[in-house]
Amino acid sequence: MAAVDLNAEALGVPRKQLMESSGNAVARACRDLAEPGASVAIVAGRGNNGGDALVAARFLKAYDVTVHLLGRPETISTDIARENWDALVAGEADRRTVTDSAAFDLGDPDLVVDAMLGTGVTGALREPEATAASAINESSAAVLAVDVPSGVDADTGDAAGLAVDADRVVTFHDDKPGLGDLDCEVVVADIGIPEAAELFTGPGDLLALDRDAQSHKGDHGDVLVVGGGPYTGAPALAAQSALRAGADLARIACPEAVSREVQGYSENLIVRGFSGDRLTPEHVPSLLDFADDRDAVVFGPGLGDADESLDAVREFLAAYDGTAVVDADALQVVPEVDTEATLICTPHQGELAKMGGETDADWETRSDLVREFAADLGHTLLVKGAYDVVSDGDAVRVNRTGNPGMTVGGTGDVLAGATGALAAVLPPLDAAAVAAYANGRAGDLAAEAFGGGLVATDLLERLPAALRGDDE
Ligand SMILES: NC(=O)C1=CN([C@@H]2O[C@H](COP(=O)(O)OP(=O)(O)OC[C@H]3O[C@@H](n4cnc5c(N)ncnc54)[C@H](O)[C@@H]3O)[C@@H](O)[C@H]2O)[C@@H](O)CC1
Ligand SMILES: [K+]
């Protein structure tokens, strides 16, 4: 929800506007439950859940409204909730502040609006919320809960202690998993979050990185790039990109014939050569061993399409059971391989066609085709284009960052490497979506400096800023 929120804001629909819609929905639910003139007690917490109900109070002029703010107005935790408290001028509602739970007096209202806590709840209700919840539960009034009954965890439906017993819940945007098992009526209100905020990647997607990457206990990934032979720049770019996208270690396995050249691009890379001048099936057993201890493998950059090399890719994937990003010439063998591995395939339109996938000039039609093909393959696809389409066969995300300057060689290697680093810390769909977004942002930042003359290494330098969500 926080990610969708930030994406909506980037699309010009700020949180305060969403709060106005939620408040309006709460007021509508009040009108459903009580006749004009009825007495309504709004019990508001200091977060945005309370803010929603403070908005509702402005829409309930036909009612006798009392607002009980749990705490002093200075302690309201968000600007938008405080602005809505300030907007309730004297006369519009009877405003009371509850600083001592012993002094809380709910009165005998016809309807109670429980807006103490929403999705921000942590642990058991503290005071004065606990006293207020008891009073609400003892009251004979109808109880309308805002978003979720206070004290209930919206994700699980569990309560760490006391929780409000509501008759009806008006929840926002989407049903919450924890509401299903509650013994009350749940109404989902559309609060006008643009569909684009969920479909298109945006700055909100970067939040996944904070959350999930932290849970990986400081382990930000050990990524192996398998590639090189006919080309040397591609694996070096992919590995450097993995480092810029946050991997702790980036290793390259490439033919000995080119390993010194590949190492020469950067002292940050750990290069291991295998015999000869290209990948062949004889290298696969040791490659599998080497890949076993890595968090993710990026297979394909600069590998070439010699028959022996493609045989090696087939044998590798058939035996591998980790996470791999498959790019470039390696892509064409994916449809024929039966593998336990988790694959993220990063084809451009031409490579997609070679894999047997269909495409279309219209991005919406293309999204459907990509989703169906990902479902057939049983893997995640990131199909590159002016609009990148990401799908795991179920969900679809579309990325619009990037610019025509990025058709220059090497940007695909940068994307593959970044996807590998992110796949070490995020689920495949998120890794692909965040990588596409950040790679495009890095390209946009590079275009500000170099216009159509940008080159792939310019993206490497800008990837960290793009992943932090910096504007420039
Ligand atoms: N896109 C969104 O996420 C939207 C969210 N909205 C509303 O915003 C709510 C979430 O707002 P917030 O994140 O501000 O969180 P809440 O308003 O749910 O709660 C945060 C406040 O509760 C306090 N708190 C937490 N646990 C407590 C406990 N056990 N006992 C006593 N106090 C406790 C915190 O210190 C903080 O002041 C949603 O439930 C919804 O009602 C809406 O405005 C619409 C848009
Ligand atoms: K609530």
Walk me through the structure.
By secondary structure, the protein is an alpha/beta fold. The chain folds into two domains: 2-197, 3-Layer(aba) Sandwich (Rossmann fold), CATH 3.40.50.10260; 205-468, UDP-N-acetylmuramoyl-L-alanine:D-glutamate ligase, CATH 3.40.1190.20. Helices cover 39% and strands 17% of the residues. It contains 16 helices and 16 strands. It has helices at 2-10, 15-33, 48-58, 79-86, 129-138, 196-199, 207-214, 233-244, 256-264, 284-292, 307-319, 349-355, 363-377, 411-423, 428-450, 456-468; strands spanning 39-44, 64-70, 94-98, 111-115, 142-146, 168-172, 185-189, 222-226, 249-255, 270-274, 296-299, 323-326, 342-345, 380-383, 388-391, 396-399. The strands form two sheets. It has a nine-stranded mixed beta sheet, sandwiched between helices. Strands 3-2-1-4-5-6-7 form a seven-stranded parallel beta sheet, sandwiched between helices. It is elongated and about 85 Å long. The protein binds ligand NAX and potassium ion. The site of potassium ion has 11 residues, from β4 and β5. The site of ligand NAX has 30 residues, from α2 and α3.
Concise description?
The protein has 472 residues and is an alpha/beta fold. Helix content is 39%, strand content 17%.
